[in-house]
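Hi R.,

Here's the chain you asked about this morning:
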Amino acid sequence: MVKSTGIYRGGLNCELTHGPSGQVISTDAPVDNEGKREAFSPTDLTAASLGSCVVTTMAIAARKRLGIELDGTRWEVTKEMSSDAPRRIVRLTTEVWLSIPRSKDVDGVLERVAHGCPVHRSLHPDLEKPVVFH
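And the predicted structure, written out as tokens:
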């Protein structure tokens, strides 16, 4: 079990603390909902978490199953919000630029584990979550 704590700092900003490490991040409301774009919005964190989880899970599989490291692999997640109520994320498109030739993953292990990362599996099935590899 991992706990995080938070405090509302005012001005639509929150401060979040990761219990085990003590690391702190801030959030701001989204700009289209009275925010100032001073930090990640809560839904931005969802998108960032998905990208981080996809690549971390791939890195674990690359190390264990393929005996290689994915240092330098980059990702980008594009978040799309609903235009109707209720306000929600409707699509998270993840793009991954592998730091290794795809020929090193002959059986497609990395692509399979990317779609099975814990965040990907935790998101609602109605949420579109395509993953594109470069």
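The beta strands are 4-10, 13-18, 24-28, 74-81, 89-97, 131-133.

Let me know if you need anything else.
M.
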